[in-house]
Design goal:
Layout lengths: L10 E6 L20 H14 L4 E9 L14 E3 L4 E6 L16 H15 L5 E5 H15 L3 E4 L4 H10 L4 H8 L1 H14 L2 E4 L2 H7 L11 E3 L20 H15 L9 E5 L8 H9 L2 H6 L1 E5 L11 H16 L6 E2 L9 H11 L3 E4 L8 H9 L3 E4 L3 H9 L2 E4 L4 H12 L2 H18 L2 H16 L10 H8 L3 E5 L1 H5 L3 H13 L4 E6 L4 H10 L7 E4 L4 E6 L2 E4 L1 H7 L5 H8 L6 E2 L10 E4 L4 H13 L4 E6 L3 E6 L4 H11 L7 E5 L5 H4 L4 E4 L16 E3 L4 H11 L7
Parallel strand pairs: 1-2, 1-5, 2-4, 5-6, 6-7, 7-8, 9-10, 9-12, 10-11, 12-13, 13-14, 15-16, 15-24, 16-17, 24-25, 25-26
Antiparallel strand pairs: 3-4, 17-18, 18-19, 20-21, 21-23, 22-23
Length: 724
């Protein structure tokens, strides 16, 4: 398979946003903490990129979800948005919809399946762009494998979150348990190191947040603020743009608010955010509740995400919504304050801004911290003046748009004072309204964002971006692999020097799309040493320690497969196994250098009853493991998900190599599983009696030639060197 990169000179971009609920229409913004501003940002970025003539293809890669509690839309593998844009959903961690903190243990699966997807397309993307720490982890692994230029947008950072949680009084153990915060921060450090460019929305993110990371290099950063969709968020003065559907929606929203307010003609103070403590909704309600003058002037409407039953929501959201209701009751705001349930439609939000603007109202973002503040530019585009937290992104937005007031929201009286100032001065209100409409078009459109973004991408692609500690050469070799030869070492590849030399010569002359691997009971260092000693070409993959480890080999530089490690670690308990078998006198524990994290090794004499006894002890103690006896003296116990055969099939899956294009050769019992099944099996002539039962099996060739000569014979038997 030949890589076909940039044949049309147009850019192929993959955007990775793994958690939350993403689809091409009617985003369920505010449904939960994972479906918020990032979801909207990524989808609108993808749509804007697909419209640019410099872009040939865009894929938004996210998690596939098959869960009765959410729409079936999220189970669709490929969702076509337009001729150049698809949403690609990859399954990992099962089908249930789970919060992002629970996905960390499943990201290696996402990496594996992303590689499989990319290889199926027969073209590497020109750029991968991760969003948030989980996608950063995945894209770090992809760029390490393939050397793909890598862009990252953090959206929020773990170190900032940790500092905030500690200041709120939480203890580190509880934070770690719920948020996997150390894992996240470690992933972010690696992402910052491996990313070729990091995009932020504001300069404050770089100066105050990324500055906390040891791998930060300032020349990587680009400040490119997101845009707003001006077709949706148009000014309240342009009533002619409202379709019949929008007119009906406006009436529905007005009727919804009418049920809450005694005087519906007063200006509307609008807040629109997720029910999250950091959004400081309580500060806004307190400001309104304690200021009688403000209550006389205006009504307050808080749209705090999508909700159905507060009691069934997650702790943070339930606590915030409960606090809203209690504060409403405390200040007796009935008839003055509304907390409607937000519709699950993308059209409701822009209409809310326009309705508030028509009443002469104000939008309030009272968040304690605000990395950017997308709602502020949406309000600006709609002509609605704003009061915003004097933190992070709002500083840049208010500076550029001149459409409102920054205030210290830690004091509720400041919020009330700022709102009053705008509501009491009609000329100031008009000034802020017109400034917002005018300046959003100047600073915050997706067209402007996309132009700057692609300019930076093109500059990046012109540079040589290889990090010194990526292993892209081996990744690209496996990306183009059509066939794979896998052989055991001892008594298969080795045993006759002349045959070994002939086999090595065959490897050196094979086609570049046929790759070479070894599968051995030896440790990886022992395997490398004996291969070098016998002048055998470097294998691309080493399956060692009876299939309990996989290494990618770049000319002697070994890269362990983290995906395989994560896969086989399930229900593995090495210490318990060792303890259970310690009383068996017929077992002799092998030397420490042969022991591995996922392998317990013993010497023992061949005795079928002893092997049965070992298996019975493990089963009776509810331990799932593979017990492998070979060469009449070696006993290895490895995870039940591990073996040489399973490791080969894992590689076939990850690198999308068909089973009938994999030739495997072995001589003993620990080769049995890899020789069976749909692979092309070769049993060399000097095989152990343990393999005799395979004779006559499907795709099993018994060569009469010993050692590496048998492998060569098997290659000829299957006509394997012929191109696929």
């Amino acid at each position: 398979m030949k890589m076909d990169n940039r044949k049309d000179k147009k850019i192929y971009i993959q955007l990775y946003s793994i958690h939350g609920l993403i689809r091409g229409y009617d985003l369920e913004l505010g449904r939960d903490a994972d479906t918020g501003g990032q979801t909207k940002y990524v989808l609108e970025l993808a749509k804007a990129l697909s419209k640019d003539p410099r872009v040939g293809k865009v894929e938004l890669v996210t998690r596939q979800i098959k869960d009765k509690l959410v729409s079936g839309d999220y189970a669709e593998h490929i969702e076509k948005i337009d001729d150049k844009l698809n949403i690609v959903r990859i399954r990992c961690g099962g089908g249930k919809y789970i919060r992002k903190e629970l996905l960390w243990n499943h990201l290696e699966e996402f990496v594996d399946k992303s590689i499989k997807h990319i290889k199926s397309l027969k073209r590497l993307p020109d750029v991968i762009h991760s969003h948030y720490a989980d996608a950063g982890y995945v894209c770090t692994e992809l760029t390490k494998f393939f050397g793909i230029p890598f862009v990252h947008t953090g959206h929020s950072l773990g170190k900032s979150k940790l500092a905030k949680l500690l200041s709120d009084g939480l203890i580190i153990e509880d934070i770690e348990k719920r948020y996997k915060i150390s894992h996240r921060i470690e992933a972010e450090e690696n992402t910052v190191y491996y990313a070729d460019m990091i995009i932020t929305s504001t300069s404050q993110e770089i100066e105050k947040q990324y500055a906390e990371y040891k791998n930060t290099e300032l020349d990587k950063f680009r400040v490119i603020p997101p845009g707003v969709n001006l077709e949706k968020f148009y000014p309240f003065t342009q009533d002619s743009l409202r379709t019949r559907e929008m007119q009906r929606l406006k009436i529905l929203i007005a009727e919804k608010l009418l049920r809450f307010f005694i005087d519906v003609d007063k200006p509307l103070i609008l807040a629109l955010c997720r029910p999250d403590k950091r959004k400081n909704i309580s500060g806004l309600i307190t400001a309104y509740g304690e200021n009688k003058d403000l209550q006389k002037k205006a009504n307050l409407a808080i749209f705090a995400g999508i909700r159905k039953d507060i009691q069934t929501m997650q702790d943070n959201e339930r606590e915030v919504l409960t606090e809203i209701l209690l504060l409403m009751d405390k200040y007796n705001l009935y008839g003055k304050m509304a907390i409607p349930k937000k519709h699950e439609t993308q059209h409701e939000v822009p209409e809310l801004y326009r309705i508030a603007a028509e009443t002469g109202g104000v939008f309030v973002n009272s968040a304690l911290t605000e990395p950017f503040g997308l709602t502020l530019i949406e309000a600006a585009a709609s002509g609605l003046p704003v009061v915003a937290t004097d933190d992070g992104g709002p500083r840049d937005i208010i500076k550029n748009c001149q459409n409102g007031i920054l205030t210290d929201v830690t004091y509720s009286e400041n919020i009330a004072k700022s709102i009053n100032k705008i509501l009491s001065n009609k000329s100031l209100w008009k000034k802020y309204s017109s400034n917002g409409i005018k300046n959003v078009k100047k600073y915050y459109t997706w067209e402007a964002h996309t132009k700057t973004y692609l300019d930076e991408i093109e500059n990046m692609l012109k540079k040589e971006l290889r990090k010194k500690d990526t292993f892209a050469p081996i990744g690209k070799k496996l990306f183009t692999a059509e066939k794979l030869i896998v052989t055991d070492i001892d008594n298969t590849l080795l045993g006759d020097d002349n045959y070994t030399k002939d086999f090595s010569e065959m490897l050196r002359n094979k086609h570049e799309n046929i790759r070479f691997a070894v599968a051995t009971g030896r440790t990886v260092n022992s395997a490398l040493s004996v291969l070098k000693e016998n002048n055998i070409p470097h294998p691309d993959v080493i399956i060692s320690s009876v299939g309990s480890e996989i290494y990618y080999n770049l000319e002697g530089w070994l890269i362990p497969s983290q995906g395989w490690k994560a896969h086989i670690s399930f229900q593995w308990n090495r210490n318990k196994i060792k303890k259970l078998l310690s009383s068996f006198e017929f077992l002799n524990y092998q030397e420490e250098e042969t022991q591995r994290d996922f392998k317990v090794s013993y010497y023992m004499e061949e005795n079928e009853e002893h092997i049965k006894k070992i298996r019975q002890v493990l089963i009776s103690n509810k331990i799932k493991a593979n017990v492998i006896f070979s060469h009449g003296q070696f006993l290895d116990i490895i995870p039940f998900r591990a073996s040489k055969g399973k490791a080969i099939r894992y590689i076939a899956y990850r690198w999308n190599i068909m089973y009938e294009n994999i030739l495997v050769a072995g001589d003993s019992g620990n080769d049995e599983e890899m020789l069976k099944g749909d692979l092309l099996g070769v049993v060399v002539g000097n095989y152990s009696n343990e393999l005799e039962e395979l004779r006559g099996g499907k795709r099993i060739y018994f060569s009469k030639i010993h050692y590496a000569g048998g492998i060569i014979d098997g290659v000829k038997h299957y006509n394997f060197l012929k191109r696929a």
